[in-house]
UniProtKB/TrEMBL annotation:
<dbReference type="Pfam" id="PF10294">
    <property type="entry name" value="Methyltransf_16"/>
</dbReference>
<dbReference type="InterPro" id="IPR019410">
    <property type="entry name" value="Methyltransf_16"/>
</dbReference>
<protein>
    <recommendedName>
        <fullName>FAM86 N-terminal domain-containing protein</fullName>
    </recommendedName>
</protein>
<dbReference type="GO" id="GO:0016740">
    <property type="term" value="F:transferase activity"/>
</dbReference>
<dbReference type="Pfam" id="PF14904">
    <property type="entry name" value="FAM86"/>
</dbReference>
<feature type="domain" description="FAM86 N-terminal">
    <location>
        <begin position="15"/>
        <end position="96"/>
    </location>
</feature>
<keyword id="KW-0808">Transferase</keyword>
<dbReference type="InterPro" id="IPR029063">
    <property type="entry name" value="SAM-dependent_MTases_sf"/>
</dbReference>
<comment type="similarity">
    <text>Belongs to the class I-like SAM-binding methyltransferase superfamily. EEF2KMT family.</text>
</comment>
<dbReference type="InterPro" id="IPR029426">
    <property type="entry name" value="FAM86_N"/>
</dbReference>
<dbReference type="GO" id="GO:0032991">
    <property type="term" value="C:protein-containing complex"/>
</dbReference>
């Protein structure tokens, strides 16, 4: 039997591995060294607990991760145990071998993120494409800046309390799902334009048991809902969740009562940077000085980032960089990625 100190240490390591595994954390940042540092072959319960909190976790069985990721996760664990001369359970070898086969139909997989806000615990699940681009869009895959922006939301729940938030380019909806579950926004509006992405947002909302209102749209992608003066419908007095089809190139009526416009990883395509910044500018102009845009950008291509900054600077907008911890406290983010968060307001 393990000593109490060792048991506590194992529980901490298993919880960390559980959270990393379920959100498909890069295996380069996953280590089994501490878990097995004092393991012996006559303590198979540690291996059983590892399986129970990762590959055989109820969430992993209901929302499976990519086969290759599960295989490589087990391979790393096996390598660690064999290197320490710990006898690996036959069950683990069998499970590993079963994952070595190729599944040509595995186009989509899942990620699950654990939320701990105060004394409350919840999970956010997303289904996403395994391909970086699918059906002509990058929006059916989650990205590092979305995780970073979600962490900002989790660190600033008081700022979002009772506020009306519009997210541009919501993609699979990761940031919004976390904000909806962890922050007491009055209204949260997911938006995107690509039909497949729009569909994926709605699927992920259903998967997370979130009821939303899907706005009807005209052919240009603007909501048909409007009040008599044409400024757009006011939200219900209670907290509500909406999904809006929004085309950044559309020049018509825009929402006019927002507190925050947020978005992440929106500058993949240089040709869309101008329409994006134009949309941000028009939203801030219509919504007034109380509205702030928060745009999270992964610094991949310096030229693309410079183009985005230049487009912002060329308008009546003021940008600043928000200081925050993009990797803390409640989500695992890829630590090799650098994400910059811009705050943008009208002059």
């Amino acid at each position: 039997m393990m000593e109490d100190g060792r048991g506590d240490s194992a529980a901490v390591e298993l919880e960390a591995l559980c959270q990393k595994f379920l959100c498909h954390h890069p295996l380069t940042d996953v280590s089994f060294a501490k878990l097995f540092e004092n393991a012996t072959s006559d303590q198979p319960e540690l291996q059983i607990r590892l399986l129970s909190c990762t590959l055989k976790h109820p969430i992993a069985e209901r929302y499976p991760l990519p086969r290759a990721y599960r295989r490589d996760f087990l391979k790393s664990a096996i390598h660690e145990m064999e290197g320490r001369h710990v006898e690996v359970l036959p069950e683990i070898y069998e499970l590993y071998l079963s994952l070595c086969s190729y599944d040509p139909d595995e186009d989509f997989s899942h990620k699950s993120y654990k939320l701990s806000v105060g004394d409350q615990c919840d999970w956010v699940h997303i289904k996403e494409s395994r391909s970086i681009a699918s059906d002509g869009s990058t929006g059916v895959h989650s990205w590092p800046a979305g995780v970073a922006l979600a962490n900002w939301c989790l660190q600033n729940t008081a700022l979002l309390d009772g506020k009306i938030v519009l997210e541009l380019g919501s993609g699979v909806g990761l940031t919004g799902l976390i904000a909806v579950k962890a922050c007491n926004c009055r209204t949260y509006v997911f938006s995107d334009y690509h039909p497949q992405v729009f569909k994926k947002i709605r699927e992920n909302l259903v998967m997370n048991n979130i009821v939303c209102l899907v706005d009807k749209n005209d052919e240009n992608g603007a909501s048909e809902e409007s009040d008599e003066d044409g400024r757009g419908a006011s939200p219900a007095p209670m907290k509500d969740i909406r999904v809006l089809r929004l085309d950044w190139r559309y020049k018509g009526v825009m929402p006019s009562n927002l507190d925050f416009v947020i978005g992440s990883d929106l500058i993949f395509e240089p040709d869309l940077i101008n329409p994006l910044v134009d949309t941000i500018d028009r939203l801030l102009q219509v919504c007034g000085p109380q509205c702030t845009a928060l745009i999270a950008v992964t610094e991949r291509n310096p030229e693309t980032v410079a183009k985005f900054e230049s487009e912002v600077d060329g308008r009546q907008l003021v940008r600043s960089v928000v200081e925050y911890d993009s990797h803390q406290p409640l989500l695992w983010a890829a630590k090799h990625e650098t994400v910059k968060l811009y705050s943008i307001k009208r002059r």
